[in-house]
Amino acid sequence: MFHGNAGNIGHRVPIAKVLEEHIGCNVFMLEYRGYGLSTGTPDEDGINIDAQTALDYIRNQDETRNDKIIVYGESIGGACAIRLVANNQDAGDVLGLILINTFTSIRKLIPSAFPPAKYIAFMCHQYWNSEEALPEITKIPILFMSGLKDEIVPPSHMKELYAGCRTRKKIWRDFPNGTHNETLAEPYFFDYIVHFVRELLGGQHMEARL
User: Fold this and answer.
1) CA 20 to 30 Å from 96, out of 29, 181, 200, 203?
2) Which entry of 75, 105, 130, 146 is annotated as an active-site residue?
3) Model-level pTM?
């Protein structure tokens, strides 16, 4: 599970608990460098390294090496998740990707999220270019979940990502009253995730990790 920019993994424990109880999966939450109690300074390259290290850890542990993995990312965590899945889709252990209120790129997000900086967005050295990375994913089913009242990431970003997605199976779910951080509280949010995961597992009894 890759969380958004605000807060840390501690704030996502209730989400993990719901997923564990209703899907029966194990949830692995990564705390990026510079967030929560993690040391270091967060930047795009470093966070992507953290994500790959976390995935490799799961793959190399005796108790998890045979598990199937579903990657879950919200906001900037969605950008991290997209890059991770694009780089690992051929390994055979990633079953699916869940994206919640994420953006096409930081440079395109700046004019709406930070209006005073819109004229110098081109100077931003953190790219998180998901609109370029997402089309690289062609083998992994993706669930897009968009809050249509997102006040930070305009819903048009999610729509653009969905339109540009080339994977073999993609599913769109939107929430008319969903804001950036409260979409998960909207009706059917977790129902859609449960259905997606069960469909990926094909009714089989197996361990899955998000």
Assistant:
1) 181
2) 75
3) 0.92
